[in-house]
Automatic annotation (TrEMBL):
<keyword id="KW-0547">Nucleotide-binding</keyword>
<dbReference type="InterPro" id="IPR027417">
    <property type="entry name" value="P-loop_NTPase"/>
</dbReference>
<dbReference type="GO" id="GO:0005524">
    <property type="term" value="F:ATP binding"/>
</dbReference>
<dbReference type="InterPro" id="IPR003593">
    <property type="entry name" value="AAA+_ATPase"/>
</dbReference>
<dbReference type="Pfam" id="PF00005">
    <property type="entry name" value="ABC_tran"/>
</dbReference>
<protein>
    <submittedName>
        <fullName>Zinc ABC transporter ATP-binding protein AztA</fullName>
    </submittedName>
</protein>
<dbReference type="InterPro" id="IPR003439">
    <property type="entry name" value="ABC_transporter-like_ATP-bd"/>
</dbReference>
<feature type="domain" description="ABC transporter">
    <location>
        <begin position="6"/>
        <end position="220"/>
    </location>
</feature>
<keyword id="KW-0813">Transport</keyword>
<dbReference type="InterPro" id="IPR047748">
    <property type="entry name" value="AztA-like"/>
</dbReference>
<comment type="similarity">
    <text>Belongs to the ABC transporter superfamily.</text>
</comment>
<dbReference type="InterPro" id="IPR050153">
    <property type="entry name" value="Metal_Ion_Import_ABC"/>
</dbReference>
<keyword id="KW-0067">ATP-binding</keyword>
């Protein structure tokens, strides 16, 4: 039987006086991939923000069944391209939630960082500056940063957007593997192919949840 990782009950949320999400009731299964689909501006990023507890609902509630603090990986386009930072530094930021940014990394932190870079195939790029990376390499670095938070819940905002076919496939394989290892993954996507690979799907339209369930039943 599939367990529920997150229950969203009657959630409305937005920015200031503007309500973007209206009365969303949905579930996210544990250790599966959930695809969040919908047109531009339908509220996918906003819902990820609510699931990550970055955004407080104006109404309703979000219940997490014990995956710890969620790890939110923002859209790549929101990361300044010229940021003077190596891949390793970026992944190390994933440890800040555990250690605070001002404390030196200990042996465990360093082991986690190395393992996360290895897992997504960027270990050989550890000393590269972010601005020197391809789109796929940047995206995998961001995922490694999310993984370094050691959360049971990974929230990814359009992780494969703007990448070529091979890079997209690589990201989607990483996502599938993470769920196989027991991590609950929610990703926003515009790509019906990526959504069809998910175990569960939430379809948003203009801030409302219009359907949820297996992708084949939702996407037609
Ligand atoms: N920080 C913000 N302040 C005010 N309004 C915002 C903010 N972020 C998003 N919005 C608005 O909320 C609505 C939903 O945006 P959101 O980014 O959640 O949609 P989305 O489905 O993720 O879109 P896209 O597919 O283009 O990324 C849009 O009308 C957008 O303009």
């Amino acid at each position: 039987m599939t367990e529920t990782a997150i229950t969203v009950r009657g959630v409305s949320a937005g920015y200031g006086a503007t309500t973007v999400l209206h009365d969303i009731t949905a579930t996210v299964p544990r250790a599966r991939v959930t695809a969040l689909v919908g047109h531009n501006g339908s509220g996918k990023s906003t819902l990820l923000g609510v699931l990550a507890a970055c955004l407080t609902p104006s109404d309703g509630a979000v219940e997490h069944a014990g995956a710890g603090r969620p790890a939110l990986v923002p859209q790549r386009v929101h990361i300044p391209a010229a940021l003077p930072m190596t891949v390793r530094d970026a992944v190390a930021m994933g440890r800040w939630a555990h250690r605070g940014w001002w404390r030196p990394l200990n042996r465990k932190d360093k082991a986690v960082i190395a393992e996360c870079m290895e897992r997504v195939g960027v270990a050989h790029l550890a000393r590269r500056q972010l601005r020197e990376l391809s789109g796929g390499q940047s995206q995998r670095t961001l995922i490694a940063q999310g993984l370094a938070q050691r959360s049971g819940l990974l929230l990814l905002d359009e992780p494969a957007a703007g990448l070529d076919q091979d890079a997209q496939e690589r990201i989607m394989n990483i996502i599938d593997d993470l769920a196989g290892d027991g991590i609950t993954v929610v990703h926003a996507t515009h790509d019906p192919g990526a959504a069809r690979r998910a175990g569960h799907c939430l379809l948003l339209d203009d801030g409302r949840l219009v359907r949820q369930g297996p992708p084949d039943a939702i996407l037609h």
